[in-house]
Amino acid sequence: MKIAINAIPHIRWSGIETFLHGLLNAWPLNDNDEVVIFANQISAEFFRDLPPNIKIRIKNFKKTSRLQLFLYQQIDLPIILWREGFDILFCASLLSPWIYKKKIITIHDAAPFVLKEENSTLGKIFWQVNLLFARLTSLKIITVSKFSYNELIKHLGLKAKNLEVIYNGSPSYKNNENSLSLDELNLNKEKLNYGNYILAVGNARPRKNLSKLIKAFEILSAQRPNLKLIIAGKKDWRMEKIINSVKNLENKIIFTGFVSETEKQALIKNANTLIFPSLYEGFGLPIVEANILDTPVVCSDIPAFREVAGESALFFNPLNEQDIAIKINGLINNPELATNLRTHGQLNAQRFSWSKSALKLSDIIHQYENTANK
User: Fold this and answer.
1) H helix or E strand, kind and range, residue 243
2) Do the two domains 2-169+353-366 and 182-349 of this chain adopt the same fold?
3) Could you list the pLDDT tens digit for every one of the 374 residues in the chain?
4) Terminus-to-terminus CA distance in the chain, angstroms?
5) Looking at CB atoms within 10 Å, which of 2, 269, 276, 304 has the fewest?
6) DSSP code of residue 138
7) pTM of the predicted protein model
8) How far is CA 67 from each of CA 9, 11, 93, 234, rounded to the nearest angstrom?
């Protein structure tokens, strides 16, 4: 079966790329399958380390603007797929060739459609159009949690028979001998003591709720003056706005900007606690990453996190900075609780497997093997 993978729209490493890389890295061997990633020169670098049975075809763009990538995906890519007889296309996001019907797409969550501040008016229109074509032309729609599955049915009107849940997998870097130490990280030249900082990983979109976390940290800092907060996420205009608002805490809050996967691993591994204050998520992969790295998790009491974390996290009300501060402080004060969360974390991480997820996706794709050419 000729299986195409759409990596044309991707130009930065994020949760979507992590999802796609994890699935392809664990893709089940099948001598009858030909799996080809269609990538731009940036996204191709994300997949260089995949097994040799996964091929990469690179389209070099003079400028990887979103418009150029969009036009190529809508016009050139379908022509190539038709001409070369590909049986199916898998897209790891909602971005896909609109008129190409032999495809499976992924909607990670309903955030672009249910959260008012998630996108501009133009952005909302764009996602609605993508959703319209996805409903009309996709063979199947993948999502990443039971929570998102229910959200897509409730808010987007998708049919249960057209949806499948495929979880993110658990990272395999626990015993990675190449992991960095804190001393090797360049964090604004700050010197950190092991276990003397809490960590938040993610961007500065409103749903990430960093403003509440910072207010909670101000409360916490009064009790623990030596504790620092590290926020690891891209320094876009939203993050810069947050940075400018906390000048009074600039010696206690460190904004790293974008970090590599290896740097993120080191930050999580050596953190006192991973804090995840989001108001809305479809999955929450940093929870599982912290589970693997024996770092206790304190996170929002939202459905997706309850589903993903199970008993491996301490939950707080994300709208209440006092509750956030109390839960973090309570964990720091209670080594026995931290040990208990670490133990549950190791067990929890075993629920998530890239091999199982890749096999499930492969099975879904092969359901259409006999109908692909009809």
Assistant:
1) helix 237-245
2) yes
3) 999 999 999 999 989 999 999 999 999 988 899 999 999 999 999 999 999 999 999 999 998 899 999 999 999 999 999 999 999 999 999 999 999 999 999 999 999 999 988 888 999 999 999 999 999 999 999 999 999 999 999 999 999 999 999 999 998 864 454 555 555 565 544 555 556 899 999 999 999 999 999 999 999 999 999 999 999 999 999 999 999 999 888 789 999 998 888 889 999 999 999 999 999 999 999 999 999 999 999 999 999 999 999 999 999 999 999 999 999 999 999 999 999 999 999 999 999 999 999 999 999 999 998 765 44
4) 14
5) 2
6) E
7) 0.91
8) 10, 12, 17, 22
Compute the radius of gyration of the chain from its Cα atoms: 21
CB atoms within 10 A of CB 129: 11
Domain spans in the chain, listed from the N-terminal domain onward: 2-169+353-366, 182-349
Burial of 1 by CB count in 10 Å (0-12 exposed, 13-18 middle, 19+ buried)? middle
Is 182-349 in CATH node 1.10.10.10? no
- Enumerate residues 6+ apart whose C-beta is below 8 A from 330: 314, 337
Output the six-digit token pair for 162: 């057209």
Fold of 2-169+353-366: Rossmann fold (3.40.50)
